[in-house]
Amino acid sequence: MESKETRKSSEMNVEDLPDVRAFQDEFTRNFLQSTEETRSGYYPFLSGTGKYKMDFPAGGIIGEKSYALEKERFESYLIGVQKESVKSSVDITYTAEKEGNEKVILDMLRKSSNEELKFKKEELQGRGLYIAPLNENGEFGFVSYIQNLSGVGGIQVFYVSECNKENENCSKDIEKENSLIIDWLKTIQFVNKENESE
Description:
The protein has 198 residues and is an alpha+beta fold. The chain has 4 helices and 11 strands; from the N terminus they run ααββββββαββββαβ. Helix content is 18%, strand content 37%. Strands 3, 4, 5, 6, 7, 8, 9 and 10 form an 8-stranded antiparallel β-sheet that branches. Strand 1 (42-46) and strand 2 (52-57) form a beta hairpin. It is globular and about 45 Å long. Residues 1-6 have low confidence and may be disordered.
């Protein structure tokens, strides 16, 4: 008998899928590995390169027109996330970077954001997470770079949010959302196949 875990969500009948935005979009569904939540409101995502995985928000959709893939070397896409109080745009770029290029990449991120970004580094299992807050013109969020410390690969993330117009608790929601973004960034993990035995 086939378990829920072994059936990819893209192979399931639409009526059997969770009633959330991510599963209603056919293109996004191709990246989701299971209908079982990794934690409340998130599902397991595997990149088109097969080089990293993360929790994917139930309210998120990957823009098919923005999606670019070059084998295992490069992947770029936008995720639009809708929640009751906040809407967000997440711009993700994966490149097959070697460790040691972090300074160049962080400088490049500073230039492209036109902000004096102050990156804080955190070392997680097998990866370095560089993160800097963004706050301008009513938008808030983070610029981040995640470097693979056990293999090749680096991921640039621009996560920008704004409160919905009718939201009266914006400042409270900003605090809550920023904490959720940081937790989410920590779910991005590299898949180092060369370290796995068959």
